[in-house]
Amino acid sequence: MVTALLAVLALLLTLPGAASAADRPGKPPRGTARMGAGVAAHDGVGGVPAGPHATQTEGVDVSSHQGNVDWPALWTSGVRWAYVKATEGTYYKNPYFPQQYNGSYNTGMIRGAYHFATPDTAGGAAQADYFVDNGGGWSRDGMTLPGALDIEWNPYGPACYGKTQAGMVAWIRDFLARYRYRTGRDAVIYTATSWWKQCTGNHGGFASANPLWIARYDTTVGELPAGWIYHTMWQYTSSGPIVGDHNRFNGAYDRVQALANG
């Protein structure tokens, strides 16, 4: 009897509309992912960068988890740039995006938007369009950074979103090509080296055009993904002293301005 019931249950789970792994108990609701959602579980929990940082510029990234952000307080603490989650997949828009994106700008920060990729829900080009159409564009105003593709551990299911390494590289390529077509800028790639190795086979083909934003919660950046000889940004902790994840731009403030200006 037990064997028969298990067989029926297995059949039901294969039918259209059956709950996927991402929708079963224990998984977060769709839309709640943020930068570094899986980094702490795989790459450490955080640290303070070692050594002097006179040539680095402090930044933050925020999402709906932070709600309405006190941008003047962050400015006073020394933060000079910010990235704000705009979208996820083709199904989610950050409800706090206007306050976060405009608030950082009004405080004087150079800011940009990021997209949390879910390669198992829609194609790369479709997600790039959704991103650009909902806050992820770029303007030559000296205050807007190119959009960032957050491609990392899947908080909703299998680490590599059910894709082969070749399939993941193709998905990323489609997103980046579409973003460049829509905005004229090459998107930043945010990722963790461990994920990049596992899910793209350590592909080195994007390093010549796309700035690297590396996630590693430790005192040093550590190994970079193949192709990149230096990082542009480093997310070093998910528990900032005020709010959001904290980051260092690999250069003085004028280099942040240079990235914004294209």
UniProtKB/TrEMBL annotation:
<dbReference type="Pfam" id="PF01183">
    <property type="entry name" value="Glyco_hydro_25"/>
</dbReference>
<dbReference type="GO" id="GO:0016998">
    <property type="term" value="P:cell wall macromolecule catabolic process"/>
</dbReference>
<comment type="similarity">
    <text>Belongs to the glycosyl hydrolase 25 family.</text>
</comment>
<dbReference type="InterPro" id="IPR018077">
    <property type="entry name" value="Glyco_hydro_fam25_subgr"/>
</dbReference>
<feature type="signal peptide">
    <location>
        <begin position="1"/>
        <end position="21"/>
    </location>
</feature>
<keyword id="KW-0929">Antimicrobial</keyword>
<dbReference type="InterPro" id="IPR017853">
    <property type="entry name" value="GH"/>
</dbReference>
<dbReference type="GO" id="GO:0005576">
    <property type="term" value="C:extracellular region"/>
</dbReference>
<comment type="function">
    <text>This enzyme has both lysozyme (acetylmuramidase) and diacetylmuramidase activities.</text>
</comment>
<dbReference type="GO" id="GO:0016052">
    <property type="term" value="P:carbohydrate catabolic process"/>
</dbReference>
<dbReference type="GO" id="GO:0042742">
    <property type="term" value="P:defense response to bacterium"/>
</dbReference>
<feature type="region of interest" description="Disordered">
    <location>
        <begin position="19"/>
        <end position="64"/>
    </location>
</feature>
<dbReference type="InterPro" id="IPR002053">
    <property type="entry name" value="Glyco_hydro_25"/>
</dbReference>
<dbReference type="GO" id="GO:0003796">
    <property type="term" value="F:lysozyme activity"/>
</dbReference>
<keyword id="KW-0732">Signal</keyword>
<keyword id="KW-1015">Disulfide bond</keyword>
<keyword id="KW-0081">Bacteriolytic enzyme</keyword>
<keyword id="KW-0964">Secreted</keyword>
<keyword id="KW-0378">Hydrolase</keyword>
<feature type="compositionally biased region" description="Polar residues">
    <location>
        <begin position="55"/>
        <end position="64"/>
    </location>
</feature>
<dbReference type="InterPro" id="IPR008270">
    <property type="entry name" value="Glyco_hydro_25_AS"/>
</dbReference>
<protein>
    <recommendedName>
        <fullName>Lysozyme</fullName>
        <ecNumber>3.2.1.17</ecNumber>
    </recommendedName>
</protein>
<dbReference type="GO" id="GO:0031640">
    <property type="term" value="P:killing of cells of another organism"/>
</dbReference>
<dbReference type="GO" id="GO:0009253">
    <property type="term" value="P:peptidoglycan catabolic process"/>
</dbReference>
<keyword id="KW-0326">Glycosidase</keyword>
